[in-house]
């Protein structure tokens, strides 16, 4: 799909230092990071302008931004195995769940051998390794199959885990609702060094006032946003590095033609296993971030089939087989969800506020406009997302980023790098 | 917090265990569980047979199948609620139910055919993943539409729409003593319906010209096309019939004591139907029949075992069902009666 050719203009001058070329190819990354970094303050400013009603209704609020981050990471980890090796991991939610439940159980002191006070960063990584091991175990039997059958067996494993967790009263008093995190607030940073650790959460998280004397306040939610963003960014670059390594090349070779990859002499089984392990690792990291921020986890939000399905949908919308694509797909999803729910602003309250009373109570065949807004707009993101999704499958099968790549004939990074190189001269 | 050991001790209670085993092996309990299992199997079969036919002929794993059953349950529920008042007699209720099932079969068969022509046909040449994705999207849209419509009419979309579930006639709700076993009438009704559907589908496949096309198309669609038969028409018919059968299964779920109309049916039914068709072998009619019986009886036995004292862990019956799926895929990826070369390498 996206065999990356290295024949761009960036290679025209061989005498150039590789680091400059490397930096140029990361310009799009920097732009995206900058956008996400400056967005919350700008959003905050917009809310104080006359456009506040529109900004509140049509721009994503901070809670949705944070969901964007960890769900985006989960979707990327899903794409890492499904988009790059072609093996659809329909049970990916199990790894997300392992990460989420592990940090909650450790923090509650429910995991034998690991004290409750273990720093969050350490438990997050241990949870990731646990998911890695689980992926190897599941993969050992599942990679004997391919295609639809692989999807089915991973789905089967995840459903087994889901039903177990949902009914095991050891993990929570009411296992159907899942455990809540009762221990200390999870902190992202360097373990055991308090000054470089940032507490997460909407209420108990760290907040900073008057940062650097600039008069900017960073609320607890926003602090969590930046801290979680840092972890997601690190994870993204780790996965990106893996995909651009020789190991990642073999993953793509397996997707394009597994028999040929095996015939060349690669041990495709172990390449698939390790790739599966890595994707499970990052899925668990995403789960841990989710559980840390929302101070708890429930089986329906973590282990359930629909969690995988959401990742699948955003992966297709963003572009399967492009690592950043699922992230943009998630951003789109969360943005849509924010507009269509009334949790943080949104379209329904906006319409109710802006439309005159006469229009709202106008009666059309026994249904008023207000009723229509309540039933068709409020909280209806899944419906519209489903429609968008079907349209994407039919007409934009490569997704947002995949289509952009097709148009540019290269990855965005290489393309922009090449363009910059040309302008520099 | 309790430790691992003490929490495990809660699970197994020795005197209760002996007692429960004693009850389990009483012939009336076993017979009741078996008949209930067959009743469940009948409904699983009605729903799953469409899924397996569609996969066998077109290689499309239809992720909207559960949504079709959900549609059947809701539309059927509406018709039953409208047609049945509290004074309606049992016989009339059953007749109305059969009429409703027939109407819904016709409606949803047309709907499924239209869906195949409009949405699925353009993407046959793509990889199987896109067909999974498309049908899943369709299922999602149907589920959300059902949510919107039900909540607009003031009906709780989940857990179940009790007004529809309670239209069950007293005859089917009552329990009957057969050979000492105490069996709910509904299960006998379901078994009869399941047997009827099985015979009808079998006759359609083996005794009609289109059945011949379909069986031939499952073996080698290109060859069938080369012989001058419009295999695309067969695709449309099979997809339509599969949709219609799923919806009829949904109609039966209205009166099923463990289900009833709800939007949750979309995923619940879908997952169980997958388990049935994978165990039976994707594309195999015979396998689906056998697997439906296996899954139905296992479901009924384990539900009783894990809810009635031996191991009080209600999720274990579902766990067992999904473990069956996993174990089948590990030991025999092609399923009981599937074709050898699909699945593994």
TrEMBL record, chain B:
One Gene Ontology cellular component: plasma membrane
Stored CDD domains: TM_PBP1_LivH_like
InterPro entries associated with the record: ABC_transp_permease (IPR001851), BCAA_transport_permease (IPR052157)
Membrane topology qualifier: Multi-pass membrane protein
GO molecular function, one term: transmembrane transporter activity
Record GO biological process: amino acid transport
Record-annotated membrane-spanning stretches: 44-64, 71-88, 94-120, 185-205, 234-255, 267-297, 309-331
Main location: membrane
Annotated compartments: Cell membrane
Keywords: Amino-acid transport, Cell membrane, Membrane, Transmembrane, Transmembrane helix, Transport
Coiled coil: none
Superkingdom assignment: Archaea
Sequence similarity: Belongs to the binding-protein-dependent transport system permease family. LivHM subfamily.
Protein name per the record: Branched-chain amino acid ABC transporter permease
């Amino acid at each position: 799909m996206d065999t990356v050719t290295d024949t761009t203009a960036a290679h025209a001058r061989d005498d150039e230092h590789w680091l400059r070329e490397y930096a140029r190819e990361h310009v799009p990354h920097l732009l995206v990071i900058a956008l996400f970094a400056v967005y919350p303050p700008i959003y905050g400013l917009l809310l104080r302008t006359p456009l506040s009603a529109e900004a509140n209704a049509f721009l994503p609020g901070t809670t949705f931004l944070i969901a964007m981050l960890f769900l985006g990471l989960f979707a990327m980890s899903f794409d890492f195995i499904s988009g790059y090796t072609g093996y659809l991991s329909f049970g990916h939610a199990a790894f997300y769940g392992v990460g989420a439940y592990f940090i909650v159980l450790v923090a509650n002191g429910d995991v034998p051998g690991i004290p409750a006070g273990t720093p969050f960063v350490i438990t997050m990584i241990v949870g990731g390794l646990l998911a890695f091991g689980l992926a190897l175990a599941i993969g050992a039997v599942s990679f004997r199959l391919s295609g639809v059958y692989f999807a089915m067996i991973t789905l089967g494993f995840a459903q087994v885990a889901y039903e177990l967790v949902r009914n095991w009263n050891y993990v929570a008093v009411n296992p159907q609702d899942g455990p809540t995190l009762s221990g200390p607030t999870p902190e992202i940073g360097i373990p055991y060094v308090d000054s470089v650790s940032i507490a997460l959460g909407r209420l108990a998280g760290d907040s900073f006032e008057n940062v650097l004397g600039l008069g900017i306040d960073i609320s607890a939610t926003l602090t969590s946003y930046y801290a979680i963003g840092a972890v997601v960014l690190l994870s993204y670059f780790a996965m990106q590095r893996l995909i651009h390594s020789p190991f990642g090349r073999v993953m793509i070779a397996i997707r394009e033609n597994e028999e040929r990859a095996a015939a060349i002499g690669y041990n495709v089984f172990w390449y698939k296993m390790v790739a599966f392990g890595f994707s499970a690792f990052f899925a668990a990291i995403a789960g841990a971030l989710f559980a840390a921020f929302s101070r708890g986890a429930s089986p329906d939000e973590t282990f359930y089939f629909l969690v995988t399905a959401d990742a699948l949908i955003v992966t297709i919308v963003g572009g399967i087989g492009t690592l950043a694509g699922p992230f943009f797909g998630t951003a789109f999803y969360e943005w849509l969800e924010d507009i269509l729910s009334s949790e943080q602003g949104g379209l329904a309250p906006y319409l109710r506020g802006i439309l005159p009373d006469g229009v709202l109570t106008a009666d059309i065949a026994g249904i008023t406009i207000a009723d229509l807004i309540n039933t068709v707009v409020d909280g209806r993101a899944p419906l519209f997302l489903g429609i968008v999704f079907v349209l994407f499958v039919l007409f934009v099968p490569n997704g947002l980023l995949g289509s952009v790549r097709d148009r540019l004939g290269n990855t965005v990074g290489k393309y922009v790098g090449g363009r910059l190189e040309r302008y520099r001269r | 917090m309790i430790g691992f050991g003490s929490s495990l001790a809660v699970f197994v209670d020795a005197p209760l265990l002996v007692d429960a085993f004693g009850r389990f092996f009483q012939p009336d309990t076993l017979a009741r569980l078996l008949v209930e299992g067959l009743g469940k199997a009948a409904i699983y079969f009605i729903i799953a047979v469409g899924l397996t036919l569609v996969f066998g002929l077109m290689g499309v794993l239809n992720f909207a199948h559960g949504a079709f059953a959900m549609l059947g349950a809701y539309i059927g529920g509406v018709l039953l609620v409208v047609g049945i008042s509290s004074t309606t007699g049992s016989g009339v209720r059953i007749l109305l139910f059969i009429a409703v099932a027939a109407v819904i079969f016709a409606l949803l068969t047309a709907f499924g055919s239209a869906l195949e022509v409009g949405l699925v046909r353009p993407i046959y040449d793509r990889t199987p993943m896109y067909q999974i994705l498309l049908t899943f999207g369709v299922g999602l849209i149907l589920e959300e539409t059902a949510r919107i419509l039900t909540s607009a009419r003031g009906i709780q979309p989940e857990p179940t729409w009790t007004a529809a579930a309670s239209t069950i006639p007293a005859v089917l709700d009552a329990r009957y003593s057969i050979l000492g076993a105490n069996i709910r009438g509904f299960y006998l009704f379901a078994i009869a319906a399941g047997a009827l559907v099985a015979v009808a589908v079998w006759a359609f496949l083996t005794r009609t010209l289109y059945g011949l096309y379909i069986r031939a198309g499952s073996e080698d669609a290109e060859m069938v096309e080369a012989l001058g038969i419009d295999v695309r028409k067969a695709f449309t018919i099979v997809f339509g019939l599969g949709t219609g059968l799923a919806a009829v299964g949904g109609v039966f779920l209205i009166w099923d004591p463990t289900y009833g109309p709800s939007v949750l049916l979309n995923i619940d039914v879908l997952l169980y139907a997958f388990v049935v068709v994978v165990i039976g072998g994707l594309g195999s009619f015979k396998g689906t029949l056998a697997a439906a019986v296996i899954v139905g009886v296992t479901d009924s036995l384990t539900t009783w075992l894990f809810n009635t004292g031996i191991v009080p862990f209600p999720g274990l019956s579902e766990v067992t069902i999904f473990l069956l799926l996993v174990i089948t895929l590990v030991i025999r990826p092609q399923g009981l009666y599937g074709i050898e070369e699909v699945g593994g390498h």
